[in-house]
């Protein structure tokens, strides 16, 4: 299997969902070194909590958050990041036209968190995040992206 990008990783919500359902990315649970360099943002955690179906799923997510906190790898966007996201969404609307702010706001917060941490954002939604990468680059912020669904060795198992 080809290695994941070096350095810290931040997984987007969709990757966690497919892993938890046993649909994809089973390698996430095989190598503790991957977990040890993974950052969980509160934005992704909130999306995951919103999608839980029962108390058991919530407890599993509680443990995931607890483990990330214990490693010091649980992040939450500060107030300045929320304001920055709003400003960048306005710029994006000017550049790209009408946008669904609700949908894109969380993605932009996730992108800002990954850039702030110097982490590679691992996402199946690389097309949308490429837009945020370009927008962040215009202000000298670097967003690194990795799409595991485009790589055969990462997509299954």
Please tell me about this protein's structure:
The chain has helices at residues 13-20, 32-36, 42-50, 55-71, 79-96, 101-117, 126-137, 152-155; strands spanning 9-11, 38-41, 74-75, 120-122, 144-146. The protein has 157 residues and is of the alpha/beta class. A 5-stranded parallel β-sheet has the order 3-2-1-4-5. It has 8 helices and 5 strands; from the N terminus they run βααβααβααβαβα.
What overall form do the CA principal axes indicate?
Answer: globular
H/E series: EHHEHHEHHEHEH
Largest sheet: 5 strands, parallel
Strand order of the largest sheet: 3-2-1-4-5
SS-based structural class? alpha/beta
CATH-defined topology = Rossmann fold
What topology emerges from the helices and strands here?
Layout: E1 9-11, H1 13-20, H2 32-36, E2 38-41, H3 42-50, H4 55-71, E3 74-75, H5 79-96, H6 101-117, E4 120-122, H7 126-137, E5 144-146, H8 152-155
Parallel strand pairs: 1-2, 1-4, 2-3, 4-5
Helix pairs in contact: 5-6, 6-7
